[in-house]
Amino acid sequence: MGIMRIATLTSGGDCPGLNAVIRAIVRTSSSEYGSTVVGFEDGWIGLMEDRRVQLYDDESIDRMLLRGGTMLGTGRVHPDILMSNLDRIKENLDDAGIDALIPIGGEGTLKAGKWLSDNGIPVVGVPKTIDNDVNGTDYTFGFDTAVAVATDAVDRLHTTAESHQRVMIVEVMGRHVGWIALHAGMAGGAHYIVIPEKPFDINEIVKSMERRFQMGEKYGIIVVAEGAAPKPGTMEYEEGGVDQFGHQTFNGIGQVIGQEIKSRTGYDVRTTVLGHIQRGGTPTAYDRVLATRYGIHAARAVHEGDYGKIVALNGENIDRIDIDDAVAELKVVPEGRYRAAAALFG
Amino acid sequence: MGIMRIATLTSGGDCPGLNAVIRAIVRTSSSEYGSTVVGFEDGWIGLMEDRRVQLYDDESIDRMLLRGGTMLGTGRVHPDILMSNLDRIKENLDDAGIDALIPIGGEGTLKAGKWLSDNGIPVVGVPKTIDNDVNGTDYTFGFDTAVAVATDAVDRLHTTAESHQRVMIVEVMGRHVGWIALHAGMAGGAHYIVIPEKPFDINEIVKSMERRFQMGEKYGIIVVAEGAAPKPGTMEYEEGGVDQFGHQTFNGIGQVIGQEIKSRTGYDVRTTVLGHIQRGGTPTAYDRVLATRYGIHAARAVHEGDYGKIVALNGENIDRIDIDDAVAELKVVPEGRYRAAAALFG
Amino acid sequence: MGIMRIATLTSGGDCPGLNAVIRAIVRTSSSEYGSTVVGFEDGWIGLMEDRRVQLYDDESIDRMLLRGGTMLGTGRVHPDILMSNLDRIKENLDDAGIDALIPIGGEGTLKAGKWLSDNGIPVVGVPKTIDNDVNGTDYTFGFDTAVAVATDAVDRLHTTAESHQRVMIVEVMGRHVGWIALHAGMAGGAHYIVIPEKPFDINEIVKSMERRFQMGEKYGIIVVAEGAAPKPGTMEYEEGGVDQFGHQTFNGIGQVIGQEIKSRTGYDVRTTVLGHIQRGGTPTAYDRVLATRYGIHAARAVHEGDYGKIVALNGENIDRIDIDDAVAELKVVPEGRYRAAAALFG
Amino acid sequence: MGIMRIATLTSGGDCPGLNAVIRAIVRTSSSEYGSTVVGFEDGWIGLMEDRRVQLYDDESIDRMLLRGGTMLGTGRVHPDILMSNLDRIKENLDDAGIDALIPIGGEGTLKAGKWLSDNGIPVVGVPKTIDNDVNGTDYTFGFDTAVAVATDAVDRLHTTAESHQRVMIVEVMGRHVGWIALHAGMAGGAHYIVIPEKPFDINEIVKSMERRFQMGEKYGIIVVAEGAAPKPGTMEYEEGGVDQFGHQTFNGIGQVIGQEIKSRTGYDVRTTVLGHIQRGGTPTAYDRVLATRYGIHAARAVHEGDYGKIVALNGENIDRIDIDDAVAELKVVPEGRYRAAAALFG
């Protein structure tokens, strides 16, 4: 293709590296093809409502490389709303003279991109998930930063746990998959890791802690993914309570496991819920490189007219795969990976 | 004094820098005076039960400089128990040939040290409080590390808050004083800081957020000390609930403030409770230097027979002050310090 | 004073925290007094050449809190040039309607500020020195960040030195004073620290390393301030060479000491010169708080008409001291501080 | 295989993650197979001289996960010496009852391992190179940590360069390949990257800096791999000088490039040589996970009798490949990877 006018937007939860992707799209489009890039703010809603901003290939965009979050803002929108606005979207893209769209987002965003692609809009997607659950790509940017933040927390809790002879539980992100828990747990030397893919048996967790205390190593670190759940029938547990004052309560699975261990063993048990600090802030060098490479290759795919694809990390290379292949199912932690990690729980 | 045999112990909550203090006591005692040091494990209880370990002036103790927690373990004991065990304590110290004791701990530990000192045991105390609430000393080790961890969290939440147009609340440590909240809030550019010393008016907090959103800066960061409380009569609030399943709930003041802002404004509000990651892990360089200086000077005070004192940072110097002066009252955030910070809330 | 129009500028080497000072001046002036602030770019030269920029009390200035360097740029100018431009400076300040000037800089800048103050320009100075060598203030911002960076380097070199049985030398900043070397060396557990205040005896350094190797601790870490020098008559050494190709060479004192140890002992010795990474990048939380407090108090001093002063940290308080007192002489590492640190060299 | 007795050793330069590999070998061997592990100290020399230490599957080995360097020490030995000691090596392994050997090291170590394997010693190798130059594996542990340290330095230099309108050059590791320079340069937003694989044209580098200054972006960051070299005939340059005092000089290629830019443009140019801080210290979470996985899979390969192989990262999996394939040639930065990065130099 010749010189193009490209649009990009970020959708769904924020993720360290989004700005690095945008920067790489802008700079590659400019320096390799002489093309220009506009952004739509606040995700799909900004595309529907034409919240357009010009993105310039200058010093200011370079500065964004280090910044977490997204300079374009983000948002969520129901697919039905998007679909019912196809005409408006096409109109806005036409008005702005856009030749192709690069949406950056998770499963929902990529599916929407696919649907737009099927409906005549040239689309190349960039996968974004801090949870690392997109099929067809080895890693997604943001994941390494989340693991680094979670691992730093585990490192810090080790010494406290040991000094106070405590069991410390760290609840990390991961509603449907346990990649962050698995990696942060391995990196941090956790004594147990609980992931959604493998319903837990509270008896086994309790036993593993008791074994440590009996061996004289009187503390334990347990990393729990927020989406973990007990084996059916092994433990009473309901999410989302209301206290006697009528306020919503925030007991997550980490706290539930903690209470259970405490009541069964009498150990001093504490739970820390890491929450949003895992997804904000300056990306790690790894994530900046990966996000930059995604941006470079998305810009190239667009200029080569290779639509309906997403860019994906495959070993050392960035490949292009069909969006359908990427969103067909979640990438879960394989049984073997968990078992290998479990051999180190000790 | 000539060559001595010194004992040390750590008591109360753990704190980054405890090991640096112990190392400095051991090395200074050895290299400046030819003295030896033993540690009692698990705080006062270890002194009562004679859980004694020899501390060697070698490579292994140097390695502890970087480690959070305490190599001696820690514990809590009721003053009455301590007092009723005076004879046993004296016996244990005699048996071990101990000439002087250096307890490292917070208000309770220092008071106990004073009481032992009044009862004939040569004691020099080292103040330890992550909350920075000990009178008579500019700063205590561990505080800088806690502020650094909390500030890193605030930095990370900024970009998420901005990308999602959210109010993000960070609950930090500080049951009785707001030093960590004040410093992390100032360092992180928080838009509101809530501290125990100044009961908050929820209306004012809500208004400050509304002002930001009206000005187009559609996000906000609020740092809340865990011990913050509303002005009497301004807001219903009770701690420590139980949900409909009979489980203990964990709604802290940060979550209460968050719910209130959300229900009054409709903004997307999220709360992160930092918890234990603030008190563990490798101390900052600042805390390692301060802790090391405390240890050096405690060893010297002991060898100079200057008992009944604690070491304290006074500007650039480490002074010795009477334990009584240190524990008479908590060091709170002065009104003027808070007002100066508040001018930057914007 | 009522509403004012204030000017600020940054001069000399850059330093983490400069932007935090500027931000605090702008926000405090605006929110407490309704005043406005302009900046002159590139230090004194910008004042002479009227490179004026308006600084706004908005979101963008908040973002600068985390950024190293200075948003106003910096420069150096000879005092004679400044003095010969007094009329032009006054004219520029008059034209811009400036009521008072807040120069942020080191010894030279503060002296220049004093001279301007004596010549009728209302000036309040903010001391800036990464070396921590300004008299009358406990600490200056930037110093903590430099120590943190240097300490991180020392931490990293420890494991390499140990694995390879090497002597590792780290040359840190400090042309005239050894504060950074002293603190980074103490925090990092260095086995020897060499500072400008105490001319070194190479024999003593060599002996201390030999002692370690004989004791079986076959590695050593030495922290050297760039301005360190041998005791007169103890070692041949000249700075600033030229090699056989006519190129300038960069052998610093760290490398000289390294070569000497190597040739005398045969140990594997390596030198790392940290250089500029010590003075750039995001300030530590400590430096952000200190810089912010300096900015707040400089703005207040100006509004209270308290000219000819600098702001200075005194224990927990920010005081105002006469510029003359601050620049009379350098703040050096006292003999006692060095001796206390030396007791830990081991 | 049944229960085994395994030996391991680390050879060549140290690398963050070595201890994590050793820990994973010990724990996996113990918990999955009931096997025990011994280490030989100081690399191959320790194997020849039987410097054997038992490695226990306990708390103490878990602590090593975070530590840089190698708990076994390391060393270098000429292949001829190794080969002439085959009988002694076999004898030592026999005496210790060793069933298989896991050497952890770079190209030379792996070749030696292959030779031993060909000579009847059961060997599984673990590749170690901070430079990431081993063929057949996507990444090697230590590389991510080196890139993280180098990127942090680049981040810090950005603000200084900008504040002072300077060209800052960062010389990073990489004697034969430019992976660290490429990744740190991309992650840090460098304006030029110089790698060994692509001999540089000093005119082009100078022009790229001049372009920036002309565009008003009056500073530049250049990342240079230590092994970079000019295009033949374009620039006089000789390594390893001696100054007029007869001392060895340390002008690396970074300093040579810096001097050249300075003399041609008159810009303020500074060079920082990162050196050893890139290879020491706590590994990143990424490297801890990768190193742990290498250790797990090396232990499994040994127990499955799959000798003459090394473990290698292939996308998401750890594979086993023939040692010969790994050491046949260096993994260099492909032309396309460099060109993609160069499009962002700007």
TrEMBL record, chains A, B, C, D:
Task: Give the binding site residues for Mg(2+).
Answer: E107
Main location per the UniProt record: cytoplasm
List, from the UniProt record, the residues annotated as the active site of this protein.
Answer: D131
What's the EC number here? 2.7.1.11
Q: Does the keyword Ribosomal protein apply?
A: no
What are the protein's GO molecular function terms?
Answer: 6-phosphofructokinase activity; AMP binding; ATP binding; diphosphate-fructose-6-phosphate 1-phosphotransferase activity; fructose-6-phosphate binding; identical protein binding; metal ion binding; monosaccharide binding
GO terms classed as biological process: canonical glycolysis; fructose 1,6-bisphosphate metabolic process; fructose 6-phosphate metabolic process
Which cell locations does it reside in? Cytoplasm
* Gene3D superfamilies (UniProt xref): 3.40.50.450, Phosphofructokinase domain (3.40.50.460)
Q: Cofactors per UniProt?
A: Mg(2+)
Record-listed substrate binding positions: T129, I130, D131, R166, M173, G174, R175, E226, R270, H276, I277, Q278, R279
The UniProt keyword set, sorted, is: ATP-binding, Cytoplasm, Glycolysis, Kinase, Magnesium, Metal-binding, Nucleotide-binding, Transferase
Q: What class of enzyme is it?
A: transferase
Q: Say what the protein does.
A: Catalyzes the phosphorylation of D-fructose 6-phosphate to fructose 1,6-bisphosphate by ATP, the first committing step of glycolysis.
Instruction: Output the PANTHER family linked to this UniProt entry.
Output: ATP-DEPENDENT 6-PHOSPHOFRUCTOKINASE 3 (PTHR13697:SF52), PHOSPHOFRUCTOKINASE (PTHR13697)
Task: Indicate the quaternary assembly.
Answer: Homodimer or homotetramer.
Q: Which family does it belong to?
A: Belongs to the phosphofructokinase type A (PFKA) family. Mixed-substrate PFK group III subfamily.
Entry-linked NCBIfam families? PFK_mixed, PRK03202.1
Q: What is this protein called?
A: ATP-dependent 6-phosphofructokinase
